[in-house]
Amino acid sequence: MKNQYKILRAIGLILLISPLLVTWLPPTLFTGNYSEIAEEYKFVVQLFVAFKELSITLVATIVFAMILSVIFGYVSVWSLTFGRGLANVLNAIESVPSILIALFMYIPVSGFLATHHAGVSSALSLFVFILAATLTILPESVRSITIPLSDLYNRKYSISFRSYGFPKGRILAVLMRTDLVRNALDRVAAGILLKTLVLDCSFGFILQLGYGANGTPAHQSPGALLATYRAALMGSYPQYFFWLPTLMLVMISVAFLIVLNDVKEE
Fold first, then answer.
1. What pTM was estimated for this model as a whole?
2. Alpha helices (H) along 35-117
3. Which residues of 65-74 are buried (b: 16+ CB within 10 A; e: fewer)?
4. pLDDT tens for each residue of 7-22
5. How far apart are CA 171 and CA 231, in angstroms?
6. N or C terminus: fewer CB in 10 A for the chain?
């Protein structure tokens, strides 16, 4: 029965994140007989571009943020002086709303984004967003790793290791592979995905409202798509122009929440 539950859960998660997978297919498979100048054709293309870039953003952010979180979490326990200094910096970052951090990160490169080719501008915009998202995620991620690792290091068996002359770095390397720390890493990964999704959509929505379709930064996201077609609620566009991407975002969010809840229960 337990194996059947795991299989059904895996199938359910795949279905929930299917928007991120389907949008890597050619959009022409879903445009039917619409011409390239039809509003429906433009919507489908924009939908695929937005969710494709969202998937790239999620993967790149979780890889980059996890690497930094593990390094900072490990070094924070290995060097208490570094850990205290880093904690002060991260606490200061955490006190600033994440959306403001993302907006301010774009100020130094706004001129470059406005004057360069669309492909270069989009790539740099994505890179800057990943940096901003990682910066906003690090405080909680590092703390979630440092606390259980420090707790394990100060337990009796770790003290006995030290009494036999094991170096601190070797002990921490062993403790990083324990179930408690692995569970913390899984929880951090799920939290990074969910927070990046929320920041990406809110950031894209605000940019679309402020800059419009031709403005900078060149950040494509489902949030920007919702801002573009928000007039569908008043009947200016077909209703599904707004509700389809909304439903897709809800599905992805539910998948991340399920993973995060399962990790916490473990």
1. 0.87
2. 39-78, 80-94, 98-105, 110-115
3. bbebbbebbb
4. 888 888 889 999 999 8
5. 59
6. N
